[in-house]
Amino acid sequence: MQVVVPFAAETPKTRLEGVLTRSERLRFARAMLADVLAAIDAAGHEPTVVSTSPLSFDGELESVPSSVSVEIDDRALTDAVDARLPDRGGDPIAVVMADLALATPAALESLFATDADVAIAPGRGGGTNALVVRTPEFRVDYHGTSYLDHCEIARKAGVSLEEVDSFRLGTDVDEPDDLVEVLIHGPGRAPDCLRTFGFALECDGGRVGAERLENPAKEP
Amino acid sequence: MQVVVPFAAETPKTRLEGVLTRSERLRFARAMLADVLAAIDAAGHEPTVVSTSPLSFDGELESVPSSVSVEIDDRALTDAVDARLPDRGGDPIAVVMADLALATPAALESLFATDADVAIAPGRGGGTNALVVRTPEFRVDYHGTSYLDHCEIARKAGVSLEEVDSFRLGTDVDEPDDLVEVLIHGPGRAPDCLRTFGFALECDGGRVGAERLENPAKEP
């Protein structure tokens, strides 16, 4: 199965700008991408990064598996993914978001092992964090409550739909509150990256959060 | 398997006090409890509610399955659960939080079907949302990052531990941001309860949220 990983190389993780500088967000986004690619490779598939601009395979991306290929596509997410969905008789396509820092090979295998025409791992807030499409009758729409929109698109097309129930695939890392999940459950480089930036777990009585203990000098 | 559902009958969902009145929080907590009990029953198990005070089986709890029993225990969560963990040779015990409004029979079956000495479905922020204990060598500690604490307790006791990877079991409903998950994915009474209160989905460009469109008169 071809596994597509869309990556916004130039505008990484803008909703983390309150807690990370631009260069930190770039490093962190690349560390999460590296973790996702390693998990897909370990699950036995060859990932294709669909990046908005060329990627340099150094730093956080230095040791990505050799199975990884890159395609440059500067279109919006929906258009870039739609262009890669299967034609009639074509192979299934999986689409895995680049910020699923908790993804493990086992969690991804539960997605790849589905057999419905469309399988979706929903994320927080109605997102579509990971997807498998096995039919030419489906198209994507990542705007808004994409999970509900994708359910509706599948229903109208008369194709079968399966929900993949995974905490790991359901956790995309977009907002400061998500960082704690990376520190607790992240299996790869992303939690090390946050610890390098000075983040650690803190407990305020309710849910545990991620607190920045050291605050490196701000960028100009 | 005995399935224990702890329920704080008198102080329901205090972290929702910014968006729901006390009587609404009580109704909503009871609706979520009813959903959890129905899912456990449909998964083929008999739930025991361990409540801090007597429960009236009317309103949201009117149609709970006849398999439900209630025990009153006003101790703190950790003590009330610890007192019910299996003795040597005793039957396994599952502990399922009363605010898992997204729980389905299938998600619970993935928990009950584990065979490790201890199986944990982690929640957001390091919580322990659902648990199966099959050994007398384990005790619980729900304070702080209970997921990490429970992993450490299992490791020190030398018992086997399995993580149950479920978005549905990983979503406990504590904070206003969690309400959107109930509206999108809740299978039972809880989303109807929120809609009765005037909540609906709204999209602000990032993740979708739950917005209160009508605001009933505040309680005195």
From TrEMBL, chains A, B:
Please name the pathway: Cofactor biosynthesis; coenzyme F420 biosynthesis
- Domain of life assignment: Archaea
Q: Which reaction does it catalyse?
A: (2S)-2-phospholactate + GTP + H(+) = (2S)-lactyl-2-diphospho-5'-guanosine + diphosphate
Drop me one GO molecular function for this one.
Answer: phospholactate guanylyltransferase activity
What keywords are assigned to this protein?
GTP-binding, Nucleotide-binding, Nucleotidyltransferase, Transferase
Tell me a GO biological process for this protein.
F420-0 metabolic process
According to its UniProt record, this protein's enzyme class is transferase
Q: Which Gene3D superfamilies match?
A: 6.10.140.50, Spore Coat Polysaccharide Biosynthesis Protein SpsA, Chain A
Which E.C. number(s) belong to this protein? 2.7.7.68
Family, similarity comment: Belongs to the CofC family.
Q: What is the protein's quaternary organization?
A: Homodimer.
Q: What role does this protein play? A: Guanylyltransferase that catalyzes the activation of (2S)-2-phospholactate (2-PL) as (2S)-lactyl-2-diphospho-5'-guanosine, via the condensation of 2-PL with GTP. It is involved in the biosynthesis of coenzyme F420, a hydride carrier cofactor.
What name appears for this protein in its UniProt entry?
A: 2-phospho-L-lactate guanylyltransferase
State the organism named in the record: Natrialba swarupiae
Q: Taxonomy-wise, where does this protein's organism fall, top ranks first?
A: Archaea, Methanobacteriati, Methanobacteriota, Stenosarchaea group, Halobacteria
The protein's gene is named cofC
